[in-house]
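HOLO CASE FILE
Compound: magnesium ion
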Amino acid sequence: LSERLSGVFDRLTKQGALSDEDVKTALREVRVALLEADVSLPVARDFVKAVQDKATGQSVTKSVTPGQQVVKIVHDELVHVLAGEGEPGKLKIDNAPAPILMVGLQGSGKTTTTAKLAKRLKEREGKKVLMASLDVNRPAAMEQLQILGVQIGVDTLPIVKGEQPVAIAKRAKMQAAMGGYDVYMLDTAGRLSIDEELMQQVEAVRDVANPRETLLVVDGLTGQDAVHTAENFDARIGISGVVLTRMDGDGRGGAALSMRAVTGKPIKFVGLGEKMDALETFEPERVAGRILGMGDIVALVERAQETIEAEQAERMMKRFQKGQFNMNDLKMQLEQMQKMGGMESVMGMMPGMGKMSKQVKDAGFDDKIIARQIALVQSMTKKERANPALLQASRKKRIAAGAGLEVSELNKLIKMHRQMADMMKKMGKMGKGGMLKQAMK
Ligand code: GDP
Ligand code: MG
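Model generated. Tokens follow.
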């Protein structure tokens, strides 16, 4: 998919303002991308409309293509929708003991998330936490929470065989008050799908505990189903926030967008693995990147905007057109690359280039080499930089020694310079720099 998107965007190479046509073409693909990322149709439609209004007529930054610019606008809108009000990762847990009710389908990751969250509250906020399992349905479910509790050093409510969920909730509440706990967490039982019995059980528990937070735990890989689950739970139980688990898997995160658009509830945390540390504050930027599946084009655009000064590029281009490309130009190019985070990072951010960046690295062309090449240019005299033809054996020795490197390395640099200079010359000759402008993008 990312290839198809970048394909479309590559075709949009006109400069100036974004035309209606540019935006429409790009947005058709964005819509497909959203649907493939499991965003529901009405949500995708509304979203695309919002972006269209924002994008048309915007002027294009010189150093990026209109396609990349559209991606950025789409990205920003995604972030806007994904980010709810209130601070992600923060829970309302004043007035000790504050009850947190954990709900969701079976296997969504409730028990794991309960323990992860308890650990986080304990370590980051210094809270004294009590966990209680209300899962009387699945064999060994209560022991599972107990074992996790021991592992992370958080207390669990002692297990009483045969006790029912409401009774367990009452006991947890009492124990939390008597034991001086800041928070008590109720890990409920799930079902394979939503059913009446489950809902009644959770409702009864809710009424006893009167939770400060009711967190719905949903499997981020289940896409559209996750959204239905959220709607259902919210309608019956009333949820205060969502935890998306399995975001370490290859789901595209479309569920997150639909969930926000449909329920309006904040996504508080994401689960990123089975380990107890694998719980993170929900970051809209990250998920937006995932949905677009565009590598990190947005970061690339942003960095390009920051680092490439249009004027400087323009001046250089004029020189190249005249066939001038000396060592100073080469040095500037190398520094530009360095500023943007080095070869590996620049290539890693371009869709489809991830693999190539590894090859480049394997071939021994890494960021350290860029630094060494810059050092070599620096140890040349002004004259040598302006006229690389001067570089004969004795000068080479001096330059290499000055940079603390081998002459062979300098030879490589000279060869690279010659190749680039040739290329620039050729492109400069081809019609008023049209080709060159393309190559610079
Ligand atoms: P529950 O039935 O809702 O209580 O689900 P559990 O907490 O027992 O989790 C079910 C399985 O999912 C367990 O094997 C967990 O280790 C796993 N799991 C939970 N959260 C995550 C997550 O964020 N990423 C991954 N990869 N696995 C998870
Ligand atoms: Mg469980």
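CASE NOTES: Residues 275 and 350 are 31 Å apart (CA to CA). The longest strand covers residues 213-219.
CLOSED: yes
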